[in-house]
Design brief:
Distance between the termini: 136 Å
Strand content: 25-35%
Number of strands: 14
Structural class: alpha+beta
Order of helices and strands: HEEEEEEEHEEEEEEE
CATH class of the domain at 68-135: Mainly Beta
Helix content: 10-25%
Length: 210
């Protein structure tokens, strides 16, 4: 008679997983980077750092190059912010020197050295002054000279600055004769022999015949 056996047949020993000595399965070691791979990685990181430093340096140089004296190339609106949506503070006449302290997009930030309210002008209507032009900024400029109209009551001073004495107060809407610009001030001379003086550029605009 054939002997019957209960349960599943035993698996052969070669079917069972073999556990290495020590009780844990060994991990495959991670491949090490060769000298060539390490060199490429170092070169890549160095290139990124160099480009970042160069970009920062270029930005600083550009910002510094923007600052300084500029000359208006046309009658230009001085606005309260960097864009045409901002209010017009005044109109700067062609040919005067302005002090630029910064840039926002295509707009130059202008600040008066006499402490007046700053504003912005479009870079299209101004160009940097050359060294020779800076030295001659107080000379007469034919493009500035001409007839102007006072926008409001304007103080006529005996020098180009608020530290100078007020000679007279010019009423709004009158016609005056400007002969040259000195910074943010215009030299006014009367054709009738009146005493000359200076008015702030933002208190006047060019005379327009009706």
């Amino acid at each position: 008679m054939r002997r019957l056996t209960c349960g599943a047949p035993r698996a052969s020993l070669w079917h069972l997983p073999v556990r290495p000595r020590g009780g844990t399965l060994s991990k495959r070691p991670r491949p090490r980077l060769g000298r060539e791979s390490k060199g490429r990685r170092t070169w890549y990181l160095g290139s990124i750092i160099w480009l970042a430093i160069a970009s920062i340096a270029a930005g600083v140089a550009f910002a510094q190059a923007t600052k300084g004296g500029y000359l208006t190339t046309a009658d230009v609106n001085l606005r309260s912010g960097p864009g045409t949506k901002y209010d017009v503070v005044t109109t700067l006449p062609k040919g005067i020197k302005v002090n630029v302290v910064g840039r926002e997009g295509n707009w130059l930030k202008v600040e008066s050295k006499q402490g007046n309210k700053p504003g912005y002008i479009s870079e299209k209507y101004a160009r940097p002054l050359e060294t020779q032009q800076v030295a001659q900024s107080k000379t007469a400029s034919p493009s500035v000279a001409g007839a102007y109209r006072t926008l409001r009551d304007a103080e006529l001073r005996d020098g180009p600055g608020t530290k100078f004495k007020v000679v007279a107060t010019l009423p709004a809407g009158i016609k005056i004769n400007v002969v040259r610009a000195e910074g943010d001030w215009l030299r006014v001379e009367s054709k009738k022999g009146g005493k000359p003086g200076y008015v702030e550029v933002r208190t006047v605009e060019r005379w327009k015949d009706k």
